[in-house]
Design a protein that fits this description.
The chain is α/β, with parallel strands linked by helices. The chain is built from 11 helices and 7 strands. The chain is globular and about 50 Å long.
Amino acid sequence: MNNVNKTLYIPLYGKAYVSRKGVILSDKKAEEIWEKEGFDLKGKSKSKWLAYYMGMRSKVYDNWVNEQINCTENPIVLHIGCGMDSRCERIQAKACLWYDVDFPQVIEERKMYYSETEAYHMLCADARRTDWISNLPCKNAVVVLEGISMYFTHNEMNNLLKALSTHFESVKVLMDCYTVKAAKASKYRNPVNDVGVTVVYGTDSPAVFTDNTGLVFVKEHSMTPENLTSQLTGAEGFVFRIFYGGAIARAMYRMYEYKSK
């Protein structure tokens, strides 16, 4: 598994960690997979603070996807860069088509723990190439881009977003992004360094991903909302809110929502 693929173990560990503690996110599948497949994480990538952050990020995505499914006619969910994530089970979206997409090596491992159904599918694809999108039904798409934008150049991401908005009847997208400051600092202090990734990209403006993509910016979401940070109590809660929530966190990491024009 190449270094970018290995980054999937960082959020997997985080979700398993918070699930075992009974806070933020319930994810028995992450617990199961981590118990059997857990990669030997080191340093910052196995920090409990990062685990809390990864759990919160996933819960925010879960809530958004569930909301969009409920307000979108005939939706199709597309989770690009799914890794070993169990969102398809966590929100129990059995009434819509769901496609989890990742590199062949990741999907091969994923199929050890997930089974396809009439509604649920796993696709092998490199998201930097967009030819695979043409094989999907042309419905109203709810697209999750969790933890992958930082591995794409702006041109690569814009090409993907344009292909999505061109193919589907309508598109709603949620994506998290490093800031420019975070991308620069990542060379020295990013947890992905612990699995060998040294090149990442960032942006300080959501408008970067509206240039010729057919999408418009909707709003920015918090990845550490109060209803989740409040589940951490005492000293842990205080430290997390100071160093991983609010303005300090936003200076490094942001979450943007887009939709079709």
